[in-house]
Design goal:
single chain; 82 residues; mainly alpha
Length: 82
């Protein structure tokens, strides 16, 4: 279970950084608490579908991009590779 949470979180971080957003700015855009973004990115929280939708919208991506298993096949649970 932790692998999917870490995979999801690393994708959130990737797209956030791609847009040049801080965790605080992303939280503001998604209407969630600033500290929540950090827990999601570290894979420490089991995110709800509503919050997946909010983050995807704030990151300007389709929800499916945050669950892209093709990326996981290429890179493992760390996306993108370090």
């Amino acid at each position: 279970m932790k692998d999917i949470l870490r995979s999801f979180g690393s994708k959130v971080r990737f797209y956030r950084e791609l847009l040049g957003l801080s965790q605080e700015k992303l939280a503001e855009k998604a209407n969630v608490h600033r500290t929540y973004i950090g827990t999601v990115e570290r894979g420490e929280t089991n995110i709800t579908l509503v919050n997946v939708y909010k983050l995807a919208k704030a990151l300007e991506v389709d929800m499916t991009q945050l669950f892209d298993v093709e990326c996981d096949r290429w890179w493992g649970t760390r996306f993108p590779p370090s």
